[in-house]
Task: structure prediction
Amino acid sequence: MKTPTKIGRYQIETEVGRGSMGIVYQARDPRIDRPVALKVVDFSSRWLEEGSASAAEEFQERFIREAKIAGKLSHPGIVVIYDAGEESDFCYIAMEYVPGPSLKRLLREKHPFSIDQILLIAQKSASALDYAHAQGVVHRDVKPGNILISPKSQFPGPKSRDNDPGPTTLDFGIHFELKLVDFGIARFEGSDLTREGLVIGSPSYMSPEQIQGKRVDGRSDQFSLGIVIYELITGQKPFPGDDIKAIGLNILNEKPVPASRIRPDIPALWDEILLQTMAKDPHDRFSQLNEFAQALAAEVYKNQPPGNSTGRNNAGQESRHSDPSTRISSPESTPAWAESSIVDSIIKSKTFEARGRNRTGREREERSGRIWIWYLLILILVGGIIFFLVKW
Result:
C-alpha cells in the first residue's frame, strides 16, 4: 500500500507500524492542530482481494467494532479514540498518539527490564484490563506489541517504524505512562458476534481456552498478561515452539520453566504467582488481575531492605516510592527504619507508664499496710487496758 498524504481530514506524516489489522500512521489533525495515530485498513488491497468477500466483511466488521468498543472505554491506561470514518476504500480510526515504543520493540532490542519496571508494567496493565473487564470487554490479544510505553517528559528521537531494526531503546526508568492498544478482536462478554470454535489471537500469547475455541472472559487476558510479564523477566517466551501447533500443545500441556532459573534475582514467590496466573484451568487463576499485581508487589516490598524504601535501588534507578503516581499498591509509605523507631518509642513510653502505675500502686499498698498495723496495735493496747481495769 502506497503511503497516502491525506486520509479524511488527517495529514499523514509517517508510517509508524504495521499489524494484522492494517497500517498505523503518525498524522495531524489540522482542525485542532493535534498529533494523532491513524490506523488504516485498505479494503481494496490485494491481501483482502485474494480472500473471500465474507472475509473482507469480517475484517471490516472487526475494524468498526474496535472503534466502538475502545471508544466506550475511558481509562488512563487505554488509548483514547478520537474519531472513526471511511473514505473511498479506506476505513480509519484516529486515536491518541503515544510517543514511545511498544514492549515488543524493547524486547527485540534486549532492553533489560528492572524489577521495579516489571512490577509497574504489571500494575498499570492490570488496572487497564480490570477496568475493561468491568465494562464487559475482553481484549483477547494482550501481547507486547499492544502495550505502549511513553516516558514522562521524554520523547523518542527520530521517527521510525515499529518494525525498523534501528536502535530506539529509551531508558525510561520508572517514570512512564502505559497504554493498551488494539481492541480489534475484543468482544463484549456474552456477545454472540464471535462464535465458539473460532480461534482468534496471537498464538504465543493465547490462553488454553482461546486455543480450544471456547468462550473466554477476563481470566483469558490474565493468562496472556502472565506470559508478557514472564517474557519481560526472562527475555524468553514461557511456551516456545517451532510452529503454531507446537506452541499450542505447550500452552495446553506444559508448565513453563520457573523464571527464577533464568533470572535468579526475582522475588522468591514470583514463580508461584506466575504459575497461578498461567494456570491451565481459568478457575485456578486469580479472580482479578489486580490481585495478581498486588501479589507481585507484596513480594517486592517484603524484600525491601530497611532504609531503601525511598531513594534509589541497587541498579541506581529512582525507587517507585519517589513518584506518588506509581504508588499503586505499595503497602507502606514510611521507611522501615522510621517505623521501627516509632514502634520502639511507643513500647518504651508504654513501659515507663506501666512502671509508674506499678510504683504508685505499691506505695498505696505499703501505706495501707502500715495503717492496719497501727490499728491493730491500738486495739491490743485498748483491750489490755480494759482487761486490767475490769480485773482490778
